[in-house]
Hints:
Blueprint: E1 13-18, E2 30-36, H1 42-49, E3 68-74, E4 77-81, H2 92-108, E5 112-120, H3 127-138, E6 143-148, H4 155-169, E7 176-177, H5 183-198
Amino acid sequence: MENISANKRPEAVFICSSAFYKELPELKGEEYAVLGRSNVGKSSFINHVLANSNLARVSKTPGKTTLANLYKLEESMYWVDLPGYGYAKAAGDEKHRWSKLIADYCEKRPNLMGLLWLIDIRHVGVKADMEAFPWLSDLGKPLFPVLTKGDKLTTNEKKKQVKAAIETFGFKAEPVVYSVNDHMSRDRFWDRFTQWRSGL
Length: 200
């Protein structure tokens, strides 16, 4: 496994998008799912952490990521951006398809190594995340929690929310606090992600 440091981030390449699990190509290498509730900032996170503003489509309107988007980060690693969960205004058929796509990928994908679980740091413990957590835990896949939108809170507020996340979800390690307006967030993420990945 290639070691990724803050000074050597992978150059991501978009592979494809798919609306259904059965349409996803078989990949040779480790896969990591990027998931979180609708409007948690997944697209912005992906673009920033991979230093490419054109990779994922960003929208202020919830529910815009409706497909599984595959990105190749290196020869042996892929990220799969899954639709956000918990968007109440989505049509019933669409919500069912999104839920099935997420479930099928996370439950059936043979090369899935772990889950990057994005949580809005301002709203730790919201209903959508509380409902998703038992299922995520039952998957038996390692969780790498990322608290997004860190720039929206003061330093003391962030400390309180990190503590709340640990207490609410029982994280063994402190979640990474991420802000797309802070390039140091990117370096901290890759240091922590590399360490986490090497222990899988």
